[in-house]
């Protein structure tokens, strides 16, 4: 009987662990949420409504030597020209997470249609609504 209960508990645990996002997936979800709150007003779909040439497309990031998480984080932290600094609004971890999200989205040409739906889907699955 103990073996059956143990096996059932292990199966239950494995099923629940498999439903949870990986650490990287969780960071990308958090990055998407932070981007939605703080960045999308100017940078929807990786664009830039203030200065067209200063978008978040991978070609632009590469041309401006901003194609690393560190470089993007520096810009997010300290700002530049029309880009506001976020060091007083975001924690260091949040800056790193949103910067990684921006780079990943840029590499995917901002077509990862679904990062926000993954955010909603994850929380919807989690809370069953």
Description of the molecule:
- By secondary structure, this protein is mostly helical.
- The radius of gyration is 19 Å and the shape is elongated.
- The protein contains 7 helices and no strands.
- It has helices at 2-19, 23-38, 40-43, 58-63, 69-78, 92-107, 115-127.
- The model is unreliable at 17-21 (pLDDT under 50).
- It is 64% helix and 0% strand.
Sum up the overall morphology in one term: elongated
Question: In percent terms, what proportion of residues is strand?
Answer: under 5%
The SSE string, one letter per element, is: HHHHHHH
Largest sheet: none
**Helix/strand/pairing class, anyone?**
mainly alpha
Spatial separation of the terminal alpha carbons: 36 Å
Low-confidence stretches: 17-21
Mean pLDDT: 81
The number of helical segments is 7
C-alpha Rg, in Å?
Answer: 19 Å
Number of strand segments: 0
- Kindly state the percentage of residues in helix: 55-70%
Give me some keywords for this one:
single chain, mainly alpha
Kindly summarize this structure in a few lines:
The protein is mainly α and 129 residues long. Helices cover 64% and strands 0% of the residues. α2 (23-38) crosses α6, α2 (23-38) packs across α7 (115-127) and α5 (69-78) packs across α6.
